[in-house]
Amino acid sequence: MAAGGEGTLRLGNAYTRKIASAPSMAFLTLSYLYVGTANFVRVVAYYHDVLGAELVWNLSGFGAHVAAFRVGGGPLLLLADHRPAPSCMPVYEVADLKETARTLKKRGWKPDGRAFEIPNGPCLAFEDPSRNRFAFFESVRPHPFGGES
Protein backbone atom coordinates (compact mmCIF):
# COMPACT_ATOMS: atom_id res chain seq x y z
CA MET A 1 0.00 0.00 0.00
CA ALA A 2 1.52 3.35 -0.99
CA ALA A 3 1.58 6.25 1.43
CA GLY A 4 -1.69 8.12 1.23
CA GLY A 5 -3.45 5.30 -0.65
CA GLU A 6 -6.09 2.86 0.48
CA GLY A 7 -5.94 -0.81 1.26
CA THR A 8 -7.65 -3.58 3.16
CA LEU A 9 -6.94 -4.51 6.75
CA ARG A 10 -7.77 -8.14 7.49
CA LEU A 11 -8.16 -9.07 11.16
CA GLY A 12 -8.37 -12.85 11.38
CA ASN A 13 -10.67 -14.59 8.92
CA ALA A 14 -13.91 -12.85 9.78
CA TYR A 15 -13.30 -9.08 9.88
CA THR A 16 -12.12 -6.96 7.02
CA ARG A 17 -12.29 -3.19 6.70
CA LYS A 18 -11.04 -0.58 4.28
CA ILE A 19 -8.30 1.69 5.62
CA ALA A 20 -6.23 4.58 4.36
CA SER A 21 -2.52 3.81 4.41
CA ALA A 22 -0.31 5.42 6.99
CA PRO A 23 1.52 8.65 6.20
CA SER A 24 5.14 8.18 5.19
CA MET A 25 7.32 6.43 7.78
CA ALA A 26 9.36 8.69 10.06
CA PHE A 27 11.59 6.02 11.62
CA LEU A 28 14.57 4.43 9.85
CA THR A 29 15.80 1.56 12.02
CA LEU A 30 15.04 -0.03 15.35
CA SER A 31 18.51 0.42 16.84
CA TYR A 32 18.13 -0.40 20.53
CA LEU A 33 15.89 -2.13 23.04
CA TYR A 34 16.46 -0.16 26.24
CA VAL A 35 15.78 -2.52 29.16
CA GLY A 36 15.59 -1.66 32.86
CA THR A 37 17.38 -3.69 35.51
CA ALA A 38 16.78 -4.25 39.21
CA ASN A 39 20.32 -5.57 39.77
CA PHE A 40 22.70 -4.38 37.04
CA VAL A 41 25.69 -6.62 37.87
CA ARG A 42 23.54 -9.75 38.15
CA VAL A 43 21.65 -9.04 34.91
CA VAL A 44 24.85 -8.28 32.94
CA ALA A 45 26.33 -11.57 34.17
CA TYR A 46 23.13 -13.41 33.17
CA TYR A 47 23.18 -12.11 29.59
CA HIS A 48 26.90 -12.82 29.22
CA ASP A 49 27.33 -16.08 31.15
CA VAL A 50 23.95 -17.77 30.79
CA LEU A 51 22.65 -16.54 27.43
CA GLY A 52 26.11 -16.23 25.85
CA ALA A 53 25.32 -12.79 24.43
CA GLU A 54 28.20 -10.71 23.07
CA LEU A 55 29.07 -7.72 25.28
CA VAL A 56 29.56 -4.78 22.89
CA TRP A 57 30.26 -2.17 25.60
CA ASN A 58 29.72 -1.57 29.32
CA LEU A 59 29.90 2.04 30.49
CA SER A 60 29.22 4.19 33.52
CA GLY A 61 28.61 7.92 33.49
CA PHE A 62 26.29 10.61 34.81
CA GLY A 63 25.28 8.28 37.64
CA ALA A 64 24.14 5.48 35.33
CA HIS A 65 25.46 2.11 34.19
CA VAL A 66 24.55 0.84 30.70
CA ALA A 67 25.76 -2.28 28.94
CA ALA A 68 25.08 -3.12 25.28
CA PHE A 69 24.66 -6.75 24.24
CA ARG A 70 24.23 -8.42 20.88
CA VAL A 71 21.80 -11.21 21.72
CA GLY A 72 21.08 -12.16 18.09
CA GLY A 73 20.17 -10.41 14.86
CA GLY A 74 18.43 -7.07 15.18
CA PRO A 75 18.88 -4.18 17.59
CA LEU A 76 21.37 -4.06 20.43
CA LEU A 77 19.96 -4.76 23.87
CA LEU A 78 20.86 -1.96 26.30
CA LEU A 79 20.69 -2.95 29.95
CA ALA A 80 20.38 0.13 32.17
CA ASP A 81 20.33 0.55 35.92
CA HIS A 82 18.47 3.88 35.67
CA ARG A 83 15.47 2.39 33.82
CA PRO A 84 12.74 0.70 35.86
CA ALA A 85 12.49 -3.09 35.77
CA PRO A 86 10.63 -4.60 34.12
CA SER A 87 10.54 -2.26 31.14
CA CYS A 88 11.64 -2.26 27.53
CA MET A 89 11.74 0.92 25.45
CA PRO A 90 12.34 0.51 21.69
CA VAL A 91 14.65 3.26 20.36
CA TYR A 92 14.52 4.13 16.67
CA GLU A 93 16.95 6.09 14.52
CA VAL A 94 15.64 8.98 12.40
CA ALA A 95 17.38 11.04 9.73
CA ASP A 96 16.62 14.43 11.33
CA LEU A 97 15.36 14.70 14.92
CA LYS A 98 13.90 18.22 14.66
CA GLU A 99 12.18 17.58 11.32
CA THR A 100 10.77 14.25 12.53
CA ALA A 101 9.40 15.89 15.68
CA ARG A 102 7.91 18.74 13.64
CA THR A 103 6.22 16.29 11.23
CA LEU A 104 4.87 14.06 13.99
CA LYS A 105 3.54 17.03 16.02
CA LYS A 106 1.40 17.99 12.99
CA ARG A 107 -0.15 14.51 13.27
CA GLY A 108 -0.92 14.86 17.00
CA TRP A 109 2.25 13.34 18.49
CA LYS A 110 3.60 14.75 21.77
CA PRO A 111 7.08 14.25 23.25
CA ASP A 112 7.48 13.13 26.84
CA GLY A 113 9.76 15.91 28.01
CA ARG A 114 12.62 17.70 26.30
CA ALA A 115 15.29 16.28 24.03
CA PHE A 116 18.17 14.55 25.83
CA GLU A 117 21.50 13.14 24.72
CA ILE A 118 22.42 9.51 24.23
CA PRO A 119 25.90 8.47 23.02
CA ASN A 120 24.79 8.59 19.37
CA GLY A 121 23.13 12.02 19.55
CA PRO A 122 19.94 13.88 20.52
CA CYS A 123 16.91 11.81 21.47
CA LEU A 124 13.21 12.29 22.25
CA ALA A 125 11.00 9.93 24.25
CA PHE A 126 7.23 9.57 23.99
CA GLU A 127 4.35 7.34 25.02
CA ASP A 128 1.69 5.84 22.82
CA PRO A 129 -1.99 5.98 23.91
CA SER A 130 -1.49 2.77 25.94
CA ARG A 131 1.48 4.36 27.78
CA ASN A 132 4.12 2.21 26.08
CA ARG A 133 7.39 4.17 25.99
CA PHE A 134 9.37 4.68 22.79
CA ALA A 135 12.18 6.98 21.72
CA PHE A 136 13.89 8.15 18.57
CA PHE A 137 17.29 9.72 17.99
CA GLU A 138 19.40 11.35 15.29
CA SER A 139 22.77 9.65 14.88
CA VAL A 140 25.23 12.55 14.84
CA ARG A 141 27.89 10.30 16.42
CA PRO A 142 27.44 6.95 14.61
CA HIS A 143 30.29 5.18 16.44
CA PRO A 144 30.55 6.94 19.82
CA PHE A 145 32.74 4.22 21.33
CA GLY A 146 35.15 3.86 18.41
CA GLY A 147 33.64 0.66 17.07
CA GLU A 148 30.17 -0.62 16.56
CA SER A 149 27.37 1.12 18.43
Walk me through the structure.
It contains two helices and ten strands. By secondary structure, the chain is mainly beta. The protein has one domain: Roll (2,3-Dihydroxybiphenyl 1,2-Dioxygenase, domain 1). It has an eight-stranded mixed sheet with strand order 4-5-6-3-7-10-9-8. Strands 1-2 form a two-stranded antiparallel sheet. Strand 4 and strand 5 form a beta hairpin. The longest helix is centred in the first third of the chain and has 11 residues.
Question: Which tags fit this structure?
Answer:
single chain, mainly beta, 2,3-Dihydroxybiphenyl 1,2-Dioxygenase, domain 1, 8-stranded mixed sheet, two-stranded antiparallel sheet
Architecture blueprint of SSEs:
Layout: E1 6-11, E2 15-20, E3 29-36, H1 40-50, E4 54-61, E5 64-70, E6 76-80, E7 88-94, H2 97-106, E8 116-118, E9 121-127, E10 133-138
Parallel strand pairs: 3-6, 7-10
Antiparallel strand pairs: 1-2, 3-7, 4-5, 5-6, 8-9, 9-10
